[in-house]
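Q: Make up one entry.
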Amino acid sequence: MSIRYLAATRLPGLGLLTFLAAGCDAIQVRTSVDTPGHHKETFSGRSNTKEALESARAKLESSEYAEADVENYAERAGAAFTSGATRHGEVSSANLIKEAKTVFKKSASAHPKSASVFKAKGKFFATLASKNLAWEALSESQTDAETVREDARQEAVASRHAAFKAEPSLEALKAFVSHSESPNGKITQKDLFDACKATRPTVKEVDDKYELLSYCLRASGSKEPSTGLSWASGLDRAFFAADLARRKREQAAADAAWRREQANAPAQPSQPAKVNWVNVEVKNECNERIEYCIDQPPSTLNTSANGHTTTTHTAIRPGSRIQLKKGGQCSFTIYTVGESNGTVVLCN
C-alpha cells in the first residue's frame, strides 16, 4: 500500500522527521533534509530508485507499453528527480527527459484514447516543472533552466488536456485548469467553460455538483453566477444559488452560536486576548489530488488539493481540525488548528 499522509515535526539538526500512518499496516519513519538551492532529498528513497526505474523500463518493453506499466514508468521516472538520484549522478537527468518523451510518444500511439496514459505523462512533466528540478539538466546539456521548466509545463498542460478529453471528470478538470496557468495568463474563458460543460454530465452527487459549479465560478474570475456560470443550465444555476445560500446560513448560525458561547464564558483576568480566527495554509507536495475536510463544528468543508498546489484557508477557528477524506468520510485528523497561523502538508 502506498504510504503518503503525514504529520510532521522538525527537530534541530535532524531535518524533517516524518511519521507516516493513514491506513497502513505499519508506521515508517523517514528523515530528510532541505538542500539549499535544491529540492528536498529523501535518503531512503534514492537507494532503490535506479533499480526500480530499470525494472519499469523492462516491463514496458515486455508488455508492449501496457497502460499500467506506462503509469509505473512515469512514477519511477519522476522519483528519479524527487529522490535526488539525478542530482547525485545515479541517473542522467538529460537522458531521462529525452527517454521519457520517447516512452510517452510510443504509449500515446499504442493507446491514443487512454486517459491513464495521458495522466501518467502529465504527472511526470508536472513534477519536473513544479518541483523546480529543471536545474538538473544544466550540468549535462547546458540548457537554460527556464526553457526546460517551460517545456515541461507545456507538456504537462497538453497531457492533462488530452486526459480530460479522453475521460472528463471533476478531478481531470481541476488538473487541466490548474496546470494551464502560466506567466502569460490562465486558461481562456472559452476553454474553461467548454471543459466545465463537458464535466457536468459526469457529476451525479449533490455535493459534487456544488463543488463543480463553485470551482468553475472561482476559476472564471467572476463573482456573479450569471457570468461565471453562463455555460450551465438554468436549473443548475438555481441549484447553486440555493445551496450557496444554505451554506452561508449554516456558517452564520455556527458563527453566532460560537460568539454567544464566548460572550457567556466567564472572564479570564490577566489572560491574553483569545484568538478568534487564524489562517491555515494547506500544501499538497505530491502528484495526485488529495481530498480533505476542515471540521469546524457545526459545519464541515469538503474540499481537495491538486498535486503541487498550496491553498490558504482564512478565518479558521482555533480547535478546528484538518482531516483526510477516505472512502467518502472525514475520519483521519492530521492537524488541529492552534491560535496562530499554521501550515499543514497533506502529502510530501
Observations:
- The two ends are 16 Å apart (CA to CA).
- The chain is about 45% helix and 20% strand.
- Residues 234-264 form the longest helix (31 residues).
